[in-house]
Amino acid sequence: MSGLLAKGSELVIASHNKGKVREIAELLAPFGFNVTSAAAYDLPEPEETGLTFAANAEIKALATSAATGKASLSDDSGLAVEGLDGAPGIYSARWAGESKDFGMAMERIRQELIAKGIPESDWRASFICALCLHVPGQEPQHFEGRIDGLLTFPPRGEKGFGYDPIFIPEGHTRTFAEMDSTEKHAMSHRARAFKLFVNALK
Ligand code: IMP
């Protein structure tokens, strides 16, 4: 990112979520940054008080760059279920509770869809990813990607993280958790947001 961020610069990933940091590091691998994470700096997690993915991404990026003095990249993402008016959305991590029990969060989605009387064939959902890059002294930059799909129950697959076991991307038959990371990265919301981010680096 010649203008925004030089090759070899340290880029702190503003996240404590290991699954997310691993995916971001994989997606950034070709670009030659020195990728570290907020967890490695032992930074506290800021309260996500925003009402959109982008607002929460900005809160995390600004907190991380302020604490480290380094460029930071944050990701605020989640699953928006159409029949639940976009829930859990920005509350995707919070639905899993302190114990990060995504089995429980996925079951809650199923129960709420059933309670609303929505037929399974209409259990549409999208993963959304908002990235925010903050280089100290510059304006924060935002990039957003999404992928649409259908929810399936019971959850299937052991790969990925979070809600991956119930999400079948449009045009596919397997869940994200049944795909290897290369296949998921070819189409995911995060990969799409990264494509925009990487284009901005050129
Ligand atoms: P955040 O850390 O507040 O952005 O929380 C995002 C939450 O959304 C994660 O904890 C996951 O539950 C969910 N999520 C985001 N991206 C993915 C993904 O690629 N697969 C599965 N779940 C995801």
Describe the protein.
With 202 residues, the protein is of the alpha/beta class. The chain has a single domain, classed as Maf protein, CATH 3.90.950.10. The protein is built from five helices and six strands, in the order E-H-E-H-E-H-E-E-E-H-H. The chain has helices spanning 18-28, 53-68, 102-115, 181-185, 189-201, and strands at residues 10-13, 34-37, 71-81, 124-134, 141-151, 167-169. The protein is globular, with a radius of gyration of 17 Å. It binds inosinic acid. The site of inosinic acid has 17 residues, from strand 3.
What is the terminal-to-terminal distance? 5 Å
Number of strands: 6
H/E series, N to C?
EHEHEHEEEHH
Assign a percent range to the helix content: 25-40%
CATH-defined architecture: Alpha-Beta Complex
CATH topology: Maf protein
Strand content: 15-25%
Average pLDDT rating: 94
Which ligands appear in the coordinates?
inosinic acid
Number of helices: 5
